[in-house]
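To whoever picks this up:

The parser on our side crashed when reading a file containing two proteins. I've narrowed it down to the boundary between the first structure block and the second sequence. Both blocks are reproduced below exactly, byte for byte. First block:
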Amino acid sequence: MTVKALGQCLFFSLCGMPRCEQLLTIAKQLSRSAHNCQQCEQFVAQSHDFVEILNLFINENTRLTHLYVPYQFDHQIHLISGAKLCFSELEFLSCCTCNGDGVLIGLAEICNSVKELELVIGNDNNNHEITKLIKTTKRLFGIRFLANGNSMNDESFCKILEESLIIHANSIRYFKMTKQPATKIISSFVNLNRLELNAIGLKNVTTCLDNLSLPFLQILKARCIPINVLASLIKNTSGYLIEIKIDYASHDEINNRNIIQAIYKKCPKLKYLKLLIRNSNILELENLLINCQCLSRLYIIINNGNYFESDLLNWDYLFEIITKSSPISLFDFKFCFYKAPKLESLKLFLDNWKNRHSMSLKTIHDSFLDSDMDWNNEHQNLIEKYKAQGIIRNYTHVNFWKIFINSN
């Protein structure tokens, strides 16, 4: 790697402290700031020695806690004088499984204090030496397996990689996966309390989740995971779930009812919920509000864009149930919809919210249209009126697809 290339992928944040509580960041931060990138290139242009740059940050007087290693980074940082002491308190490591032996073997020698590991898995050319790093780590608490794109990963490598985690099965508390699973390793994490799954663009992800039991689970975030699988998973928890966030999981009325029932029967401590609610199951939502008395934040996705009878939502009934049955703790609402509620429905909802905690409200228009014709100035003016009365604490309106397009 040339010095100039290094300047484009390395950003060091030491906060001016000998004991660094931030991170040695590789490959992430500069992409977010052209200004920082220019600064770094100027700095590197003035430095004639690659090792000289690393020595500024890797030495026996510095303690790094976070390390990000980019794709194709090939410098053996473990051979730098003072590296062992510098990384002796490392807590977080992110690297690509395609890195060479020199990097991965070296990291395995000096990074045994790592508690959280993030691996970006390539489609091919993956290095099995990464499993040595996993095995030499004293105690892992968090694992992230991130796919490099949406294509299929190297299944044979992924199987070996996942199975290498078995020695940390009892200590792992946090697991995130955005790739195609190759084994049922998640079922081994008996003490897991946070699970994040993203199956966008993937198929056959249910194999590793069938009959999964995670009794101590507290946080569940799922995207594009079949809703029946998630309902089964929630049923196999033991009442500790405090946050459930389910995205991009289309489901019929029966499956929608089943997961709502699973939530209010098994999640008495729930504080945050994001879920699609169908019109036929508004009554089940009431049961959820009654049974989940710790709920403080509710994000309702409303699939009312197709204009079929089963998709149309009775906003008046939904708002009535929310005002009548919400626990005292509930104050934060987000509504994502295609067809906005009528002005009269919104007004009645806000009128009925008087004498309760001030509401934090966010509306998300799920539409490809350039303008929010459904949610117009009259809606905005009404909101401002109730903000002035103190019924609404703060309010935001966004177009979902504008955000999506701008972020890509």
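<<boundary where parser fails>>
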Amino acid sequence: MNKHSKLLMVIVASLIILVTSIFFSDMRALFNQARYQELLETVEEEILSANIKIVALTKGTRGLAGASGVIFKREGQTYYALTANHVVTSETDLDQTTYVVLGHDTLDFSDVVEEKGFVMDVADYYKSLPSMSIEYTSKIHDLAVVSFTTDKEYPVVEISNESPMHKDMAVTMSNPHGERNKVTAGKIKSKEYVTFSDNEESTVDLVVEHTALISVGSSGSALLNEKLELVGIGSVAKFENQTRPF
């Protein structure tokens, strides 16, 4: 067998493995959604409205990108939320960046245009939403505390006193791939905490992997236990979903 034939066989085998991996990941996700349907419905009814979307506004922004966060505290009309550090520090021009918060019931600009049929400047729309303040950040833990003020009523998710353990139930609330307020279920995969590095001088300590389906836009998402308590914040995604626990 010549060199080119061997290379072709390796490529074909790799593609088969990749497709199989994607297929079984999707099947596992569908299985988890069906298996834990009752729990997911409870999350949607009781605390999904604590899920927020964070949008960064920079010069010339179209306001299309976004990430996730979860409300954990309230003082009057000011809400405090947890998200990932990289959500609020990844912009190249932070001095010219502002952040706004979309509550679970606040429409994205594209939805406003589609549902209400009027056209306005995208930046003007997002600037009309509650502005977000950054209260605290931790690069090594990829965590941030942010705040915003609104007269709307949102629930608060309690932070668990117990850390997530191997095979524990895991539920996420996030805004993946431009979708809003998605709830998924899975299990904690890690037997112990790990340290994640993207080889770009960015390291996140104390990370756990889980099988609940998340995607781009899920950074900063809530990871919940069966008691609907907060046990972690969505951090990074490599080959498995990874979350920074408390």
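After patching the parser it read the second block fine. DSSP finds five helices and 13 strands in the chain. The longest strand covers residues 67-75.
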